[in-house]
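ingest -> fold -> write
write: protein_1
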Amino acid sequence: MRILAVDDDQNILALLQTALSALGLFEVSIADSGEEALRQIERAEKPFDCFLLDIQMPHMNGIELCREIRGLRSYHKTPIVMLTAMSERKYIDESFVAGATDYVTKPFDFFELRSRLSAAQRILQEHARASDSVEVARKLKKELDSNLMIALSDPVAMPDIERMLGYSEFDNYVMQLSRTKRFTSHVVAIRVVDAERHHAELSNADFREALQEAGRALSKFTRKTENILSYRGNGVFLSVCHGKAALLTPEKAPSLNQMLATMMASRRFDVAFELEIGGPVSMRLTSRSGALFALNRATAALDTLHGDNTTARKFGRGGARSADAKRSDRLAYEAILKDLLTEEPSLNRY
């Protein structure tokens, strides 16, 4: 994995280059400024596979560099890991909105960093497989976005929508928030009403485009409060809000739907999407496991709008459970186990 590490601290660069290269899994190049990083990117005979970026650098900071890299055609989906001493939410939010894949704070543990880079490598491999699929589709003279079959549960990517993170990036964002020990953060689920019916009746292209328009409306509706968003599949969006002023509540659904209807009408959509907003769930970000469980509870809160206990049954014993639910539970239980092992190192012996 070819990594470009960018930091104005030569000691950090030397440490990264020596330690990561010694693992035998990484080939590390270094740059001591954003400008030098861009020059190396331009000169590189083969594209880099991953970037490690410090935030605090003179002239061009790491967030600005992240945005520049994302604007390059060859690096639209390359993993970018912010490696920084800045732990404030402001920098976390700005980094992910600029296109960061993950966020690691200094001082860092090399075993954790290796784990994060391995995860980034898996993301890179998934993107490569997706690119292969696109190339096959082109050879068959099909437009991927218009003709690729999508399941209702698929978390359709919306990279061109402001503050709309991908599935993995959103999970990483929530995990990083948990490290800041915030108590004013909430997560809210927003669902397309009758999403299953729309998916069955519409073509793949129309359903995908209508979902994108719903995402654009949600982004525009929360622009002032800068909520961080993600589409999770099954017609459900999640919104992370910070502070009471940013809260989305069920009472705001009519205003949101009015905006969505206006936007869809201006683009001459034949379908009318309606969104419903669940109640806010406090994330109580004292642990990563608690943050992940909050995401599940936010989706479950949607069903209380209609007195529906479907979601409750889904999480109950013997109920049918979706792949997304199983994945969320697995991540949550993994986080709980990791939290436990961190707090009680003696358990690692067993």
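write: protein_2
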Amino acid sequence: GWVAPWLDRLERHIVNQSWTGVSFLPTGMTPTDVWRKNFLACYITEPSGLNNRNHLGIDTIAWECDYPHSDSTWPNSPEMLMEELVASECTDEEIDKITFGNAARFFDWDPFAHIPREQATVGALRARATDVDISETSKSEYRRRYELANS
């Protein structure tokens, strides 16, 4: 949500400050052009960012769940993300880019070199992870478990 207004402000300042004759941008490029060529913005939950995807450039947006931090949506991340993607009317191609494609391209990494795509779906991964505890655990409970393990 913050990137689009920031780019708008940069675009305005380039025009407002053009009288100085100084530019830090590559010749012929706007701040938005530089953004689209060089940056990738990750978000956890941000409907405004999705709604600005055409302005930002769909190739510059990536989703993250930020686990295990407190603002993470885990363990309901896929469901929450899908609600936002559907509400923003994202296409299947945009969903692929946002959920894995853009990050894979940006970091020059092929996730499917490690696990076939059909085994990397939410359902398939959850089926393989039946031993993963997804219950919410308080800090005091973690402390109790730590002390028990180290006594």
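write: annotation protein_2
The longest strand covers residues 41-43.
Strands lie at 41-43, 61-63.
pipeline exit 0
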